[in-house]
Write a structure and sequence with these properties.
Layout (H helix, E strand, L loop, with lengths): L11 H4 L5 H11 L6 H5 L4 E6 L11 H14 L3 E6 L13 H17 L4 E6 L4 H12 L3 E5 L7 E2 L2 E2 L4 H11 L5 H10 L12 H12 L14 H20 L9 H14 L5 H11 L8 H7 L15 H7 L1 H11 L15 H4 L24 E4 L6 E5 L5 H7 L8 E10 L1 H7 L11 E6 L19 H5 L7 E3 L12 E5 L16 E5 L4 E4 L3 H8 L12 H9 L28
Parallel strand pairs: 1-2, 1-3, 3-4, 9-10, 10-11
Antiparallel strand pairs: 5-6, 7-8, 8-12, 9-13, 13-14
Length: 592
C-alpha cells in the first residue's frame, strides 16, 4: 500500500532532485559501492538514520553495536530504509579532562549530519550520561522526526552478597579506604564487581536519570529507560523503536510537537520522584533552550522540590536497575505522579499518544522499589535552589541528605535547616587531593569543603569534583561526610548532598573567586541562601586581587568551548547555537 507522508520526505531533494538529474546521479552514485540499489533510495520510502553512539571507547553504549541490527530490522519491516552513522563518542569515566566537553561537541556534529544528509527521521542511540541530551538537543535544532533508544543499564552488581552499584560503590569505598577499613586491592575488587555486564550505570546516576527523562519528555517508547542491556526485552525494544521511527517519519511527528514547556516540567517532576542526578539540571535546561522553551530557576522549586522520592534505588536508596525494571520502571513512577495529579498527562509522545494514554495500567509491581505517592521513601526530595553573595544560582540534591548529615548540620534546636561552617578552599581537584590530609588546615566537622575553578570556563568543561570526602582523620573517627560546595558538578552516582553547579563560576568572577580559607559560610536551607560572612569592603578589596588562575586550553576545541559556552545555570550550552532551530525547513543548497 502506498503511503503519503504528512510532509514530503527530505531525502527526495537528494535522490529525486527536481530538474537536476546531474545532482541526483552524483548523490546516488557512491551509495552503490556497498550494494544498496537506486530503487531503494528512489522508491519514496523514508530514510531513517541510526545515530550510532556505541564504540570500543564508549563501553556504556557499546551494546548498540549489536542493537543496531534489531533497529534495522524494525525500520525495514515498517517500510523504511536504514542508514547507520557514527556519533562523536562520550564516555564519562575515562574522558579527560572531562566528558562535559563532549556533550556540546557531539551535539554540533549530530546537527551537521542530520541537517546535511538525506535523512527523514532518526533513531538516536543513548546510554552514557551526555549522549541523551546531546541527541535531543540536536534533534530539536534540526527538527526532524526523532526517537531515542537507550542501550540499557548493566545487571545488578554484587560483592560478597552485597549489592554494589556502579559509581556509588566508588564513593563509598573511597571513604572506607580513607578510614583504613579496606585496602586498595579490595577497593578495586568492589569496583569491578559493580560492573557485571554490558550497559551503563546500574544506579540512578546520570545515565539512568537522563534516559528516564527522555521517557518523561515523550521522546522514547514507554519502558525503554530501565530494561537491562543483556535482557531479551532490550533487543525487542530496539526493534519496536526502529518500527516506530518509520511511523513518526510518515506522521511528521517532530520534536517541536513533543518538547513543550509542560513536558519539561514533567521531566523535572520525574527527576525528583526517581532521586535523579544533579546533572539533570544543566541537561534539562540545555535541552529546553534548544527546543525554544524557557525553564526558570524558580521552576525547580515550584514544580519539583515539594514532590516525594518514590524510587528506592542507589544512591538515594537501596536497590539497583534490574529490580527497578522488574518493578515497572519509569512508567510506574509516572503513573504514581499522574494519579496524584502531579503530572501533565496531556503531553504528546513519540507513540502518537499522550502520556496519560501511555500510562494506563502501569501501576508498580514491587512496592519495596517503587513506593506509593502517599507512602514515599522521603518527602520533599527535589533540588533545592540557592543563591547568595557567592553565586546567583546553585542546587542541592536533597534526596541524598542522610540522617547523619541532617542530625549534625541541620537539626540545631531553633535553627533547623541552618548551619555555619569554616571554609576550606581548593583550587581544582589536584589541589584538593594534595592538601585534604594536611593537618595544617585543621579540618574538623565544623568545616565546609569548597572547590573552585571547576566550571565550564575554569576546567574547562565543568568537572564532577564537588563530591569531596573528608580527610582520613575524620573518616577514621566515623565522620563520613562534610558539607561541600563548588562551581563544578558531581557524579550522579554520588550520595553527597553538595551545593554545586554554582553560577557564575570563579573563572568568570563569581563569588568563589574571592572566598578564602577560614571564611565563615552561612547556609540557610529554609530561605535558600548561601553567604560568606565577609564585609563588603573586604570583598571589594579581594575582588581587586583578580581571579584565581586556571589551566590554559590544551586543544582547539577546549579553546572554542571556553569562548562560546555559558554557565551551568543556563545549561552550559553553546550560546550562539540557541538561535538555530528547525533547520530542516530549509534544505541545504546543492554541493556541486
Amino acid at each position: 500500500m502506498t503511503r503519503t507522508p504528512a510532509r514530503p520526505f527530505r531525502s527526495r531533494e537528494w535522490f529525486d532532485a527536481p530538474g537536476r538529474s546531474d545532482m541526483t546521479a552524483l548523490y546516488l552514485e557512491r551509495f552503490m559501492n556497498y550494494g544498496i540499489t537506486p530503487d531503494e533510495l528512489r522508491c519514496g520510502k523514508p530514510i531513517i538514520g541510526i545515530a550510532q553512539s556505541g564504540s570500543d571507547i564508549a563501553p556504556c553504549n557499546r551494546i548498540h553495536l549489536e542493537l543496531a541490527d534489531r533497529i534495522r530490522a524494525g525500520i525495514r519491516d515498517a517500510g523504511g530504509i536504514p542508514m547507520e552513522f557514527p556519533m562523536h563518542p562520550i564516555f564519562e569515566n575515562c574522558r579527560r579532562p572531562t566528558a562535559a566537553l563532549d556533550r556540546n561537541l557531539s551535539y554540533m556534529t549530530l546537527v551537521e549530519i542530520l541537517n546535511g544528509y538525506p535523512i527523514d527521521g532518526v533513531v538516536i542511540t543513548t546510554g552514557c550520561d551526555k549522549t541523551t541530551p546531546a541527541g535531543i538537543m540536536a534533534a530539536s535544532t534540526v527538527d526532524i522526526p526523532a526517537i531515542t533508544l537507550n542501550g540499557g543499564p548493566m545487571l545488578d552488581g554484587w560483592h560478597e552478597n552485597e549489592l554494589v552499584g556502579s559509581g556509588t560503590v566508588i564513593w563509598r569505598s573511597r571513604r572506607l579506604l580513607g578510614a583504613g577499613k579496606i585496602d586498595e586491592e579490595e577497593f578495586l575488587r568492589r569496583a569491578a564487581d559493580s560492573a557485571p555486564s554490558a550497559g551503563h550505570c546500574n544506579t540512578m546516576g546520570t545515565a539512568s536519570t537522563m534516559n528516564a527523562i527522555s521517557e518523561a519528555l515523550g521522546m522514547s517508547l514507554p519502558g525503554n529507560a530501565a530494561i537491562p542491556a543483556p535482557y531479551r526485552e532490550r533487543g525487542q525494544m530496539a526493534y519496536e523503536t526502529g518500527r516506530r521511527a518509520v511511523e513518526i517519519a510518515y506522521d511528521d511527528l517532530r520534536p517541536s510537537k513533543i518538547l513543550t514547556r509542560e513536558s519539561f516540567l514533567n521531566a523535572i517532576r520525574v527527576t525528583t520522584a526517581i532521586g535523579g542526578s544533579s546533572n539533570a539540571q544543566p541537561h534539562i535546561v540545555a535541552m529546553a533552550r534548544h527546543a525554544g522553551v524557557e525553564i526558570r530557576h524558580e521552576d525547580w522549586m515550584e514544580h519539583g522540590y515539594d514532590l516525594p522520592l518514590l524510587v528506592n534505588m542507589q544512591p538515594a536508596g537501596k536497590y539497583l536497575s534490574e529490580r527497578f525494571h522488574r518493578a515497572g520502571g519509569v512508567p510506574a513512577v509516572m503513573w504514581e505522579l499522574l494519579k496524584a495529579g502531579k503530572l501533565d498527562g496531556g503531553q504528546m509522545t513519540v507513540t502518537g499518544r499522550t502520556q496519560a494514554e501511555n500510562l494506563e495500567g502501569r501501576e508498580a509491581k514491587d512496592r519495596e522499589v517503587i513506593l506509593p505517592f502517599d507512602k514515599p521513601l522521603k518527602e520533599r526530595a527535589g533540588f533545592l535552589v540557592l543563591k547568595g553573595n557567592l553565586f546567583d544560582f546553585a542546587i542541592m540534591k536533597t534526596s541524598v541528605i542522610s540522617e547523619e548529615f541532617r542530625r549534625r548540620y541541620l537539626a540545631e534546636p531553633g535553627r533547623e535547616g541552618i548551619f555555619e561552617a569554616r571554609a576550606i578552599v581548593f583550587d581544582g581537584s589536584d589541589d584538593y587531593h594534595h592538601r585534604i590530609n594536611d593537618p595544617g588546615l585543621d579540618i574538623d566537622e565544623h568545616c565546609i569543603l569548597v572547590i573552585r575553578g571547576s566550571g565550564p570556563q575554569g576546567w574547562p568543561g565543568s568537572a564532577e569534583v564537588v563530591n569531596m570526602q573528608p580527610p582520613d582523620a575524620l573518616l577514621q573517627r566515623g565522620i563520613t561526610s562534610l558539607p561541600t560546595l563548588g562551581d563544578g558538578r558531581q557524579s550522579g552516582t554520588s550520595d553527597s548532598p553538595s551545593i554545586l553547579n554554582a553560577s557564575p563560576e570563579s573563572a568568570v568572577g563569581g563569588g568563589l573567586a574571592w572566598l578564602r580559607t577560614g571564611d565563615t559560610i552561612r547556609i540557610d536551607l529554609n530561605t535558600g541562601r548561601c553567604d560568606a560572612l565577609v564585609e563588603e569592603a573586604e570583598i571589594a578589596r579581594r575582588e581587586g586581587e583578580g581571579i584565581p588562575e586556571t589551566p590554559a586550553s590544551n586543544t582547539p576545541w577546549e579553546a572554542l568551548y571556553r569562548e562560546k559556552t555559558g554557565q551551568l545555570s543556563e545549561g552550559g550550552v553553546l550560546e550562539f547555537a540557541i538561535d538555530y532551530r528547525g533547520t530542516s525547513k530549509k534544505v541545504p543548497r546543492h554541493n556541486h
